[in-house]
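Here is one chain, start to finish.
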Amino acid sequence: MEKFADEAFIEVSSGKGGNGCIAFRREKYVPMGGPSGGDGGRGGDLIFSVRRNLRTLAHLRHKQSFKAQNGQDGEGWGRYGKKGEDLVVYLPPGSVIKDADTKKVIRDFGQNTEDFIFLKGGNGGWGNIHFKTSVNQAPRRALPGKPGEKRSLRVELRIIADIGLVGFPNAGKSSLLDHLTNARPKIAPYPFTTKIPNLGVLTYDDLDVVIADIPGLIEGASEGAGLGHDSCVISRGADCLST
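Its structure:
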């Protein structure tokens, strides 16, 4: 069973642009062929994307640094460098991205689940083909690629639900969720069967009500043990029903 995590600190970076190339045409019958250095490729973007099958931030705990690919350098014969591949970081619904230092909210995926291009890759540098002039037919000048962006982030998970089922272990919370919705949480006759929250949807007339089955409270929960104070941190001002 994957461990539940509702908070993670990560470093994210976009890719650096590739450097421009200094090169000249060298053909048998074209002794003064001029500059042929291509441009560097653009660095890859850093993108956040919501995946509805994710329910925890545990995958961000295993890998805390995410960097998009750098653009490739330009080459001779006017060949441009390849663009760096974008890097997509997947998040569960209800995730909130904050600046790690200022705590300012950057994006709330509880309200908007569209893909978010967070950091743009650096532009590639110009090759020397751009610097040819009437007075300088053989420029030995090219530009380096622009650096990518880098940020430190705090990612929080707010469980999206209207009602949260809170109670002692093995009190029947998962059975109630199974009976009221189409969710099929694991049910067994021993404590702590539920280790991460389960979500289900109860349709009543034309209203869809999202219910969250919260892992059982343990001794010391009021001081923060287990899920502790986060047991009822459920977005949209959810009601909590004890079982």
